[in-house]
Write a structure and sequence with these properties.
The complex is a heterodimer of chains A (271) and B (300). Chain A has 271 residues and is mainly alpha-helical. Chain A has a single domain, classed as MetI-like (MetI-like fold). Chain A is 75% helix and 0% strand. The radius of gyration of chain B is 27 Å and the shape is globular. The two termini of chain B are 46 Å apart. The chains are: A mainly alpha (271), B mainly alpha (300). Chain B: It is found in: Cell membrane.
Chain lengths: 271, 300
């Protein structure tokens, strides 16, 4: 398309503005965490690392970080296994209800989080509570794993679609049985897709607020829940700023890595 | 497994694995069942079951004195939904917010995606896409928090606008629409970028050869071809806006959307919350049916 010079300049300007709008809020959080003023006044009177030290010493924030890591790790592990199994079933087999299965996988992120949240909350309350299992880290992991499956599923499906079946057939012709073929041929070809899916699943779990609100028992607080609880407390403002800045860095790194790892997949978020 | 031969343990196990592999290979149905059992059990037990139970409970009621759920079949909650003007206003407002966010996302995403897909030099394109999308996938809560700081009284936005004699919108409906637009932008940029990148050059050349200027080519060639991508992106921007309540709580001031109503009813009246929750789900299903006609869902 032959764009006129003014049109090119207009597009360039619009894109530049867009970039500015995308980056400014996050930069602001980073700057805010260095603001020596407790009330986060604007513009900041100077820069300091004191609040980072204060945040590190903050028991609640540290415990929340650890809870998030454990929940994310466990949910990712479950999602990796279940998502890969479903991806193989849907990609390598033709069966009745195949469409319905792929739909059921996507449903947890297609429906509003609050619907998923209250559904899980009331189900846990009626089924698990009589068995003596209250809301806690376990229920958080179950909730997170349910919507993390789709990320792994998407990544593995995209990779399987591009993998020619001939490698596996060759391995079988050379006498390798199903499990041997998987270990020596299919798995190495899938590895980067699994890594990308796992990273995205972890990032998704690490970031989740709504489902966590409804599945976490008292005393179980992930990092987002901790921020949400303390966001409106002026006393905690500087530490919240630091934790928010940390969360930007922690969530952007795996997403960036996942995008570089798998050029064939859509990327992160709830897609 | 009972293997009675006196062979050493390791080869015996290997033989068993080999036999199992052979059996699975010969019976694709069994193999399929082995693949599907665990994930389907998980999805049905942990998710679909609770979802079904929730929608079932929308037909129950609560005892107004004890807040206990009364398991008697009734359409009372839905009757209340339809007849109460409060719920109607909130539902309409929510749909309005979702539509506004979708339109704004499309308007902002288009020049960005057009730039990354067709104007920037081809070598820099992939890097630009990463540069746009990576920060947008940063933590949801942190982004809302950042906007809470930006929009606060005497905050950065007020500070930047003061020389012009203006001030920011503060917390409220406008702030909600702004923040939701910022949050869901990647879901619009990504499909648009992909569609614009795949636009064949010869079509644009043909249009120019036939005498069309850029504006005409844009209207008659580019727009019709990327329309399905806009529709695909809108599915996410629209449905994510319909269900949100956290952003509204943080920057919405006194604004009420459907998500907030569901949230505030969860502990007191779960059946009513469930009935309220069916509204966004129904709207999303209707929206999906409408969008399916454009063929957008195939490219999701």
């Amino acid at each position: 398309m032959n764009l006129s010079r003014p049109a090119r300049i207009a597009l360039r300007t619009a894109a530049g503005l867009g970039f500015a709008v995308i980056y400014l809020p996050l930069l602001l959080v980073l700057v805010g965490s260095l603001n020596p003023d407790r009330s986060a006044s604007w513009p900041p009177p100077g820069l300091t690392l004191d609040w980072w030290a204060a945040a590190w010493a903050n028991e609640g924030a540290r415990e929340a970080l650890w809870t998030s890591v454990r929940a994310g790790g466990a949910a990712t592990a479950i999602a990796l296994v279940l998502g890969t199994l479903i991806a193989f079933a849907v990609q390598r087999h033709r069966f009745f209800g195949r469409e319905a299965v792929s739909f059921a996988v996507v449903l947890p992120i297609a429906l509003p989080g609050i619907v998923t949240g209250i559904a899980l909350n009331s189900a846990f309350g009626t089924v698990l509570a009589p068995l003596g299992v209250g809301l806690g880290l376990f229920t958080v992991i179950v909730g997170h794993a349910t919507f993390c499956i789709v990320v792994v599923f998407n990544n593995v499906t995209a990779r399987l679609r591009r993998l020619p079946g001939s490698y596996e057939e060759a391995a079988m012709d050379l006498g390798a049985h199903t499990f041997r073929t998987f270990r020596d041929v299919t798995f190495p070809l899938l590895r980067s897709a699994l890594l990308a899916g796992g990273l995205l699943a972890f990032a998704l779990s690490f970031d989740e607020v709504v489902v966590t609100t409804f599945t976490a028992g008292p005393g179980v607080r992930t990092l987002p829940l901790w921020i949400f609880d303390n966001m409106t407390r002026p006393q905690q403002a500087p530490v919240v700023n630091v934790v928010a800045a940390l969360l930007v860095l922690l969530s952007v790194i795996p997403i960036y890595a996942a995008q570089r790892l798998s050029s064939d997949t859509a990327g992160g978020g709830r897609v | 497994m009972t293997v009675l031969s006196p062979t050493p343990a390791a080869p015996r196990a290997a033989g068993a694995v080999r036999r199992l592999a052979g059996a699975l290979h010969r019976r694709p149905r069994v193999r399929l069942a082995a693949l599907l059992t665990a994930p389907l059990l998980w999805l049905v037990l942990a998710y679909l079951g609770s979802l079904a139970a929730l929608f079932l409970s929308a037909f129950w009621t609560t005892d107004s004195f004890t807040s206990e759920v009364v398991r008697v079949w009734s359409g009372q909650n839905f009757q209340e939904l339809v007849s109460s003007p409060v719920y109607r206003t909130v539902a309409l407002r929510t749909v309005g917010v979702a539509l506004a966010v979708t339109v704004l996302c499309a308007l902002i995403a288009f020049p960005l995606a057009f730039y990354t897909a067709r104007v920037a030099s081809p070598r820099r394109r992939p890097l630009l896409v990463v540069a746009i999308l990576t920060p947008l996938w940063a933590s949801y809560l942190v982004k809302v928090y950042a906007w809470r700081l930006i929009l606060s009284e005497g905050g950065p936005l007020d500070w930047a606008l003061r020389p012009l004699g203006l001030s920011g919108p503060g917390y409220g409906l406008t702030a909600t629409v702004m923040v939701l637009t910022y949050l869901w932008l990647p879901y619009m940029i990504l499909p648009l970028h992909t569609a614009l990148e795949q636009l064949p050059d010869n079509l644009l050349h043909a249009s120019a050869d036939l005498g069309a200027r850029a504006g005409r080519t844009f209207r008659s060639v580019v727009l019709p071809m990327v329309w399905p991508a806009v529709a695909a992106g809108s599915v996410f921007t629209f449905s994510l806006s319909l269900g949100d309540y956290i952003t509204v709580q943080i920057v919405g001031g006194k604004t009420q959307l459907l998500g907030n109503l569901v949230y505030s009813n969860v502990t007191l009246n779960l059946p009513l919350a469930a009935a309220l929750g069916t509204v966004p789900v129904a709207v999303i299903v209707l929206y999906l049916l409408a969008v399916r006609r454009t063929g957008a869902l195939r490219s999701l």
